[in-house]
Amino acid sequence: DQEAAAALLLSAMIQAAKADGEIDDTERAKIMEHMGDIGDAERAFIEAELAAPVDPMALAQDTSQQMAAQVYASALMTVQVDSLKEADYLNTLANALNLSEETRARVHGAMGVS
C-alpha cells in the first residue's frame, strides 16, 4: 500500500530529525518538501509524529524487509549527522532493520554521506 509506505518513510524522517532533541529549520524543510500540498489528515499525522517519542525499534517492527533500506535512507537524508545522538539513532535503526554493513555503505554512498 503506497499510503502506508509513505507514512512509514515520513515517520523515519521525523524520528531522525528529532533524534538529537530538536528539529532544525533544514530538517523541517526536508520533511515538508516531501509532503507537497497536504490536507488536514496529513497535517494531523505529522503533528502526531512530531509529538510521539523517538522509537527506532517500533519503526523497524513496522518495516518490511523490502522497505528497510528505504526507511534507513529516508532517515539518513533528513539529518546532517552532526551529533552523537543522531549517529546513535541511525546506528540503532540500521541494527533494528537488520541492515548489513554493505547495505548501509551502499545507502551512504548513494546519498553521498560518509
Task: Describe it.
With 114 residues, this protein is mostly helical. The chain is 69% helix and 0% strand. The protein is built from 7 helices and no strands. It has helices spanning 2-18, 25-33, 40-51, 56-61, 68-78, 84-96, 101-111. The model has no long low-confidence stretch (mean pLDDT 90).
Blueprint of the fold:
Elements: H1 2-18, H2 25-33, H3 40-51, H4 56-61, H5 68-78, H6 84-96, H7 101-111
Helix pairs in contact: 1-3, 1-5, 5-7
Compact overview of the structure:
This protein is mainly α. Helices cover 69% and strands 0% of the residues.
Radius of gyration: 13 Å
Report the sheet with the most strands, covering strand number, pairing sense and barrel closure.
none
Proportion of strand residues:
under 5%
Could you list the spans in which at least 5 consecutive residues all have pLDDT below 50? none
Helix fraction by DSSP (H/I, runs of at least 4)? 55-70%
Shape: globular
The overall strand count is 0
Structural class, by secondary structure, is mainly alpha
Please provide the ordered H/E string of secondary-structure elements: HHHHHHH
List keywords for this structure.
single chain, 114 residues, 7 helices
